[in-house]
Amino acid sequence: MGKINEYGAAAAGCHKEDTMRLLDERIVRDGAVKPGNVLMVDSFLNHRLDVSLLNEMGRELRRLFADADINLVLTIEASGIALACFAAQQFGVPVVFAKKTQSVNVDGGVYAAQVESFTRKRTYDVVVSKKFLHEGDRVLIVDDFLASGSALFGLCGIVEQAGATVAGIGIAIEKGFQEGGARIRAQGYRLESLAIVESMDETTGAVEFR
Amino acid sequence: MGKINEYGAAAAGCHKEDTMRLLDERIVRDGAVKPGNVLMVDSFLNHRLDVSLLNEMGRELRRLFADADINLVLTIEASGIALACFAAQQFGVPVVFAKKTQSVNVDGGVYAAQVESFTRKRTYDVVVSKKFLHEGDRVLIVDDFLASGSALFGLCGIVEQAGATVAGIGIAIEKGFQEGGARIRAQGYRLESLAIVESMDETTGAVEFR
Prior knowledge:
The structure is a homodimer. The first copy, chain A, is 28% helix and 31% strand. Chain A is built from five helices and eleven strands; from the N terminus they run H-E-E-E-H-E-H-E-E-E-E-H-E-H-E-E. The first copy, chain A, has helices spanning 16-30, 51-64, 81-91, 150-161, 180-186; strands at 32-34, 38-40, 48-49, 72-76, 95-98, 110-117, 122-129, 138-146, 165-175, 191-200, 207-209. In chain A, strand 9 (165-175), helix 5 (180-186) and strand 10 form a beta-alpha-beta unit. In chain A, helix 2 crosses helix 3. The model of chain A is unreliable at 1-14 (pLDDT under 50).
């Protein structure tokens, strides 16, 4: 695929390998490894958003879960929303994003779960209004990162509280050296990560992919 | 245009009037007026996201600001992100979303502003990394709501701290009976709101548009 061209390289007929390589290369080029196993990708994934790359990632999630009969994409605010939107655009379905604290603007009953944030070192509640998640829904859960899996287990719990089905889980970047991915897969969930970081070294900045 | 069809009615060549009517009709159909001048649009704009409608709104912002030479869309987490993404996709530019608290994942210097939340009745800081906003940038600020204008003034201040230009402001729903829109326009900003609610009545649920 050659040099990454932020707005243009991603061809419409992009194959899985190309999309994954695009993201891997982007992590190598623009990511930064910080103390405490933090992988900074704020230049394209969770502060500044490279819309062209995210659109390709959405296409790839559509390809990976084409047979999963998805009718809803569920994510968690804030940095999951962009990828969820581009995936949902490909599936032609709506997005619901779980909110991190109970807002005065979420009325009626909610499904709730407790989530522990890896980067912020704190626990918070996530809620989804019962109006927007129903028995029989086939849900694709989307998020930007998978590390300990705490956010994902919270979202899976919310889907199951509603009597809906977790038809798939699509992640941008999985930290393969943390336990979340293995735990999610061990429970039988269908999990696809667009990039899996096997190891990273904060002294050299090197990132290895699975 | 007839009855709104959530996934399909919005034709590619949609005119301004159609997009605005689509949003006005949707507010009337699915919005709810709550005590304290709260307009609930959580079924399509800020909890559940109607991706098809948001995509049309993004197109309309592109049409309205076609001559504004935009190279960046700036919004604020969380509920501005979706519309910002669809607008940015039309312009072919990246999004930066301001973060509501200083995260351990925003390193280096930041531009910051204080914002007062209308619905949450509290003050918080919003920050944008200096890495992602530069002198000479021509910025389209996008948000879901305009009421008091506090968030917008914060974002305008951040753009101006960076020596960049607020080339336009695109809002989904302006509460025309609050002072934000008039204040923003009085300062000479080019502001376009896709729907302007002139009045709303919490007892009857009636919503009137400008």
